[in-house]
Amino acid sequence: MTTALELAPRPSSPAEEELSLADLLDLFGSEEAPAGPERPSLRASGAWLRNWTQQASRRAARWGAVTGSAGTGVAQ
Predict the structure, then answer these.
(1) Range of 53's domain?
(2) At 23, which helix (H) or strand (E)?
(3) What pLDDT, in 10s, does the model give residues 1-29?
């Protein structure tokens, strides 16, 4: 058997009301600068990459992955 469902009227919510652009900016806008560390300079990034590459190469040499002595960076 089918019966008709009686639904209560849906209450209105604040989301259904239209907000002005100024109200939306107050809710979601931020005048503050985004938080977080600044981006490192190209020189600092290059120095970090060079250091990492040298360390990885030296580790590989110690493990015997490359020919030559460890730490010299010169293959024999």
Answers:
(1) 40-76
(2) helix 21-28
(3) 566 677 777 766 666 567 788 887 887 77
Total number of residues shown for the chain: 76
Single-letter residue type at 19: L
Answer yes or no: is 19 within a domain. no
Q: Measured between alpha carbons, how far is 46 from 44 in angstroms, rounded to an integer? A: 5
> What letter does residue 16 receive in the DSSP assignment?
G
What's the total number of domains in the chain?
Answer: 1
In a domain, 49, yes or no: yes
Section 49-65 average pLDDT? 92
Higher pLDDT, 51 or 29: 51
